[in-house]
Amino acid sequence: YLIVREALHQKLLSEVIDRLIKIKRAESLNFIIADKYGEVYNFEATPDDYDLTYCEKTIVHANHFVSDRLKIERDLILSEDSNTVIRHNRMAKLINMKCGSIDLETAMSFQKDHANYPKSICRHPPAGSTCSASVIVPEKRKMYVSFGNPCENEYHKYTVQ
Prior knowledge:
Layout: H1 2-8, H2 13-22, E1 29-34, E2 40-45, E3 50-54, H3 76-80, H4 83-98, H5 104-111, E4 132-137, E5 142-147, E6 156-159
Antiparallel strand pairs: 1-2, 2-3, 4-5, 5-6
Helix pairs in contact: 1-2
């Protein structure tokens, strides 16, 4: 993950975005970029193109491309399984139902959701597995990460200087 390292060496959100745009990419990727002022961008990229979306209220992203501009003819993730779209739509629904009243505990509870099991937000074997879950609070410079399934593991708090 040289691209991640490169992004982390930048001081300003604008520098991160500029670097991500200019760096050569060998694979498709997605970054949600935020700063301490609450500015949030969704950066999706293929090896040859990218799209940058400003997030005014909320952002939901699973494992497939959501950019209309990239116009991917064949998203390999989508061609394998509908699970990513189902999880994406479920998270969007949960967020929209509570928009304006989402606190830390509510955000964490969304990631523990088992609706549509086995294609739920919180996935369990044998149908795949959730590797980690995170909630980021840019204004407080805090990130909460659960390693493994969030319904079975605690969130650890990290503070960014």
